[in-house]
UniProtKB/TrEMBL annotation, chain A:
GO terms for biological process: phosphorelay signal transduction system. The modification 4-aspartylphosphate is found at residue 53. InterPro entries: CheY-like_superfamily (IPR011006), Sig_transdc_resp-reg_receiver (IPR001789), ST_Response_Regulator (IPR052048). It comes from the Bacteria. Gene3D superfamilies: 3.40.50.2300. SMART domains: REC. This is Response regulator.
TrEMBL record, chain B:
It is an enzyme of class 2 (transferase). Residues 442-695 form the Histidine kinase domain. This is Chemotaxis protein CheA. Its EC number is 2.7.13.3. PANTHER family: CHEMOTAXIS PROTEIN CHEA (PTHR43395:SF10), SENSOR HISTIDINE KINASE CHEA (PTHR43395). Keywords: Kinase, Membrane, Phosphoprotein, Transferase, Transmembrane, Transmembrane helix, Two-component regulatory system. The keyword Metal-binding does not apply. It catalyses: ATP + protein L-histidine = ADP + protein N-phospho-L-histidine. It is a multi-pass membrane protein. Involved in the transmission of sensory signals from the chemoreceptors to the flagellar motors. CheA is autophosphorylated; it can transfer its phosphate group to either CheB or CheY. InterPro entries: Bact_Chemotaxis_CheA, HATPase_C_sf, HATPase_dom, His_kinase_dom, HPT_dom_sf, NarX-like_N, Sig_transdc_His_kin-like_C, Sig_transdc_His_kin_Hpt_dom. It holds the Pfam family HATPase_c. SUPFAM superfamilies: ATPase domain of HSP90 chaperone/DNA topoisomerase II/histidine kinase, Histidine-containing phosphotransfer domain, HPT domain.
């Protein structure tokens, strides 16, 4: 069972991801609504997989990702964000994330992305 | 296994070379062996020759010694010579017989092997038989030197007697040994000749084999090269390879030249290739994106959407000296070598036409506004979720509005203000996307774009925010519209009821069309258009419709009512002038007929003006004058259902832009219905459609199941 953490300031998105059908191999071990919270939750739950938004209050995705990457080196990080600023997303990936999923997404797209991410 | 694995295609050459070496070593070894044999044979032949000489020398020394003594001399020299010759002859003959040491011409001790051929053996045996008594006599002479005159003459006699025989025997021995040596050197020559022949043969074998192999592999390589070349020459895409320093490789497709101009791109950096086409931050972002692809940790399949060059508009120089605006699409893919990322394959495609087509399609779709799919999406959303989302979005938009209006903000506070707005609108976009409300997502996206443009503007002024307020109003309007539809649809939501068995089932509760929202809408539109109307509503029979059909009918009726208010009913003044009551009447009726259910919307307005419809169609470029003249009355009236057709002089929210009559036709088609228009200019217009009984029965059966 993989341990999944969801980081997004939108309740709708957090619910949307945790209620995705067919994520049988995943257990949502934590959710966070900003970067600061995400770091705390990650430290406690040591997730294998993290989905994270880029635009969030207090501490945004690009700031949080390098910290999360060093805190949970085993975790694969999926940036889940809208395509408004590709440069920011590219920067976020360069700083330690592994993949990008564009909002809005379907269940299938999310499943495929997590599957791809889990591969070595 | 090891061999095949390590040498592969070079196996043949390795075998050939190994054979060559083995052959040569064999020949060399044999050569060495035989040569050494020949050398020792030469020694034998020499020694055998010396025996001839020694036999004569001994006899001569013996005779000299006798002569010296007879003349009274001491004869010591001759005596010594005789003794040494006899001793050497004896030693050598013994060695020839059974092997042993003797001294050679230089006085060195050498080993002599016993002779081996039958002739030599016989000769040596015979020589020994003759020599042994003579040797005995010589020994006696040596022992009794001063008193042996009779012995001496006896010895001289014997020596003379046997001298020729011994000489002949030694001669025979020499000849035989010579012939043995000759035989061996013949063998050696023969072996050398055959070995050289074999070596030459092997050499030619290798030569022909490899020339053949080289030729065929050259042919394969040449074929592959030609194929690659042909692909690169003919492929429509611009193809090129980038190394890890983003330098272009030596091979690229001809289309690259067609797109970027006829230059040599090999060794050029990707940045220089796009010089003047992609500039500043975009170029840096592109390079960073390519570096992501070179980063093993990042999943190639999960970053495709971040490609900054998936659609770029560029001005490309043309042969005639001018510039052409083109849309280019770049794709970047990893190429893997030995499990490592070696290069990035860049595919460039001119998508100008595709983009133009897409834009015209989008424009057409936008003209049609909310289409059936969007309505369906709304209908399928959980009403509480939708309602909560709409309320929250409304609040968010008002919050943005308040922020924008806040004039107290200092110029240095503008950025914080923008940042705050961006964050809110971004969340709205995400939420809308998640709920599949693409219209709102798109609107949010556009709003976000505007905010971002402002963010990049230097020296912001309060007035720069003005256009934002306008967009925000449009946005709020959209939300209001959606809320209206959401209210309309709310009554169509499936209701969960507990059946008698106690099992929970989802069942449609038969409901007529929802009158209130339609009435409200009609009134609002009338008010906005400055018209007075009254609506009569008779839709009890709609209960036979399936849930899906009800959505379609309700949406169609809304559209027909809008249309009647905007296009049909005249303003109060015009109506009075035409002798009509100032308030227009719109009649909505759903009635069962013999062959189906008829839904009709009738207004007592100005009716359809056929002349104006024709003019409009011609002006819009839909049909030519000639074609339009050929149209029947019915066909001309049918024009109002064509996409993009509107007779409203000015586009406003409710007609001429928003929801097209086209939607009605689409909906009716879905129910396999037929549209009918009854029209009398200046008196009335009635648009109705009939849903055939077969469709109604289908839905009843479907519900029963």
């Amino acid at each position: 069972m993989k341990r999944l953490m969801i980081v997004d300031d939108s309740m709708v998105i957090r619910r949307r991801i945790s209620r995705t059908h067919g994520l049988d191999g995943y257990a949502v071990v934590g959710t966070a609504e900003d970067g600061i919270n995400a770091i705390e939750v990650a430290r406690e739950t040591q997730p294998d997989m993290i989905t994270i938004d880029l635009t969030m209050p207090n501490m945004d995705g690009p700031e949080a990702i390098p910290v999360l990457a060093s805190l949970c080196p085993q975790a694969r990080i999926l940036v889940v964000s809208a395509l408004s600023d590709k440069a920011t997303a590219i920067g976020a990936l360069a700083s330690g994330a592994h993949g990008f999923l564009c909002k809005p997404f379907t269940d299938q797209e999310l499943r495929d992305a997590l599957l791809e991410l889990a591969q070595d | 296994m090891f061999f095949a694995r390590n040498f592969g295609k070079y196996r043949a050459i390795v075998i050939s070379v190994a054979m060559f070496i083995i052959l040569d070593l064999g020949v060399l070894g044999l050569n060495f062996y035989i040569s050494s044999q020949i050398a020792s044979d030469a020694v034998n032949v020499n020694l055998a020759g010396r025996q001839r000489m020694l036999s004569q020398k001994s006899v001569k020394a013996l005779l000299d010694y006798q002569n010296d003594l007879a003349q009274g001399a001491s004869g010591a020299d001759a005596y010594q010579e005789m003794l040494s010759s006899v001793a050497l002859f004896d030693r050598t003959l013994q060695a020839f017989h059974s092997g042993g040491y003797t001294s050679d011409a230089t006085g060195q001790e050498i080993f002599l092997a016993a002779v081996e051929t039958p002739i030599s053996i016989a000769v040596v045996e015979e020589s020994l038989a003759i020599w042994k008594p003579i040797r005995r006599d010589f020994s006696r002479l040596e022992r009794e030197s001063n008193s042996g005159r009779p012995l001496l003459s006896h010895l001289v006699d014997i020596a003379k007697q046997n001298n020729l025989t011994l000489l002949k025997l030694m001669n025979d021995l020499t000849n035989d040994l010579e012939s043995v040596a000759k035989q061996k050197s013949d063998t050696l020559r023969w072996i050398q000749a055959s070995a050289i022949t074999l070596a030459i043969l092997n050499f030619f074998l290798i030569l022909f084999h490899f020339i053949g192999q080289l030729r065929s592999s050259d042919a394969v390589a040449e074929f592959a090269r030609k194929e690659t070349q042909e692909i690169l020459l003919t492929v429509r895409e611009g193809l090129l390879l980038l190394d890890s320093n983003l330098i272009i490789g030596s091979q690229y497709s001809e289309s690259v030249k067609a797109i970027f101009g006829d230059r040599d791109f090999a060794g050029m950096s990707f940045r220089s290739l796009l010089h003047n086409l992609v500039v500043g931050q975009d170029m840096t972002t592109t390079e960073e994106y390519i570096k992501l692809l070179l980063n093993e940790q990042v999943k190639e399949n999960l970053i495709g959407s971040l490609n900054p060059l998936s659609d770029v508009e560029v001005s490309l120089p043309q042969a005639n000296g001018g510039y052409a605006v083109k849309h280019l699409s770049f794709r970047f893919n990893r190429t893997i070598e030995d499990g490592k990322i070696s290069h990035i394959l860049v595919t460039v495609l001119d998508i100008t036409e595709t983009v133009a087509l897409r834009q015209s399609l989008e424009a057409a779709r936008n003209q049609q506004g909310l289409h059936t799919d969007a309505l369906k999406k709304l209908a399928h959303l959980d009403s509480t979720t939708l309602s909560a989302f709409l309320s929250r979005t409304e609040q968010d938009l008002h919050a943005i509005n308040d922020t924008l209006k806040d004039e107290a903000a200092e110029p240095q506070g503008y950025n914080a203000k923008l940042q705050n707005c961006l964050r809110i609108v971004h969340r709205v976009k995400g939420d809308a996307g998640a709920l599949d409300l693409l219209q709102i997502a798109t609107a949010a996206h556009h709003f976000e774009d505007q905010l971002q443009i402002l963010q990049k503007t230097e020296g912001l002024q309060g007035s720069d925010f003005l256009p934002l307020t306008l967009s925000l109003n449009d946005f709020l309007q959209l939300i209001a519209e959606l809320r209206e539809i959401s209210d309309l649809l709310q009554n169509l939501q499936p209701v969960q009821v507990v059946a008698e068995s106690g099992a929970v089932t989802t069942e449609q509760i038969p409901l007529p069309l929802d009158e209130q929202p339609i009435m409200r809408l009609a009134k609002r539109i009338a008010q906005e258009n400055d018209k007075a109307i009254s609506v009569t509503f008779d839709a009890e029979e709609a209960a036979v419709l399936s849930a899906e059909q009800r959505i379609l009918v309700q949406a169609s009726v809304i559209q027909l009512v809008r249309n009647a208010v905007v296009h049909g009913v005249e303003s109060a003044e015009v109506r009075l002038l035409a002798g009509k009551p100032p308030t227009g009447t719109i009649d909505v009726r759903v009635s069962l007929e013999a062959d189906g259910l008829r839904v009709s919307v009738r207004d007592d307005g100005q009716g359809l003006n056929l002349k104006r419809l024709r003019e409009q169609a011609e002006a819009k470029g839909l049909y030519s004058r000639e074609v339009l003249d050929g149209f029947s009355r019915t066909r001309v009236m049918g024009l109002i259902f064509e996409p993009g057709f509107s007779t409203a002089a000015e586009a406003n929210e409710h007609a001429g832009r928003g929801i097209g009559m086209d939607l009605v036709r689409t909906n009716v088609n879905k129910m396999k219905g037929r549209i009918r228009i009854s029209n009398q200019p200046r008196r009335y217009c009635e648009i109705s459609f009939l849903i055939p009984t077969s469709q109604l029965e289908d839905s009843l059966v479907a519900e029963a199941v």
